[in-house]
What we know:
heterodimer; A: mainly alpha; two-stranded antiparallel sheet; B: mainly alpha; 7 helices; about 0% strand
Amino acid sequence: MNTSTTNTFFTPKFSYSSKNRLFVRLIFFIAISVWCFGFTCRSILPDSAYTAIASLFLKKIYGTVCHQHIEKTIFSGGNYFFVCARCTGIYFGALIASLNSLIILHRLPVKMKLLYISSVPMLIDVFSTTMGIYSYSKIIASLTGIFFGSAVFVYILAALENNFMDKSV
Amino acid sequence: MPSLVCGFGAAVLTTIPGVKSFACCLIVPMAAVISINLDHRINKSEFPVKAGTAILFGIMTGIFAALFSTAFDVLITSIFHTNDFVEALPQTEALVKQYKLDAILDQTLVIFKQMSKDISYYGFSVFYTFAMLISNLFVNVIFGIFGGLVGMSVFNKRTTKS
């Protein structure tokens, strides 16, 4: 009786699966943070010879995943980010979602609806600006990007956890 | 084969500036999703798609996209004998000279200048090509893996529903 009470009391807060989950989510958070730091470093860090030289290559690296049009890029701290406003939104959305996933540790369901619904505002924005219905707005592009990025992150994380980790336990 | 085709397609789309402004960072993940779909259609692969298979398709698509986009970059640079790196270097050099340079930065700048010189004279720089290939491989493989995972979930969900 006494033992069972003690056992219940000392039941670990996280199961083996939860510990694995926390580890994977922490890695994701660190990786996304590094990625976000990379394209904002020129604006965050003080100007120096190191940042100037690093930005030469960073611009090229981020150029593989973004068009980097100056008129569509966020200007902050005296410099432009290395990715456009929409990509900035997507990556920050993923960063916010990854931070949130560290706080709320429960298993995530894989929901297609979430992915489709989150992509609708971004697609409408892309279509509207392309067709000239309204002019490109960095704020709208960022916001729709944040919404989409956070949903995509949740979707990818759920797919990864449901297919690898929970089977291995 | 689907990874090769989709990787090539992704590399072409990332090279065309107009198309790149549409899809941005979604080109390579989309290519990975399509490669899984193509594999299913061509090889009649069975569903559900395994996570390992999806990741493998993502990696392969990313590798092919990186190889082809680097090849296109090299080709365009060899034709025009210039690129954005060569054009941005004088600006960076002027900026860097405002600060006190240590030995490492000094050497880095020397290497950059040599790269720029090689591109201007011969239209090709081994070090620049290698650096671009590595960075393209790194970025495209990661984005390809994400695309593969999304594709796997989408197709498996559809199969479960049907």
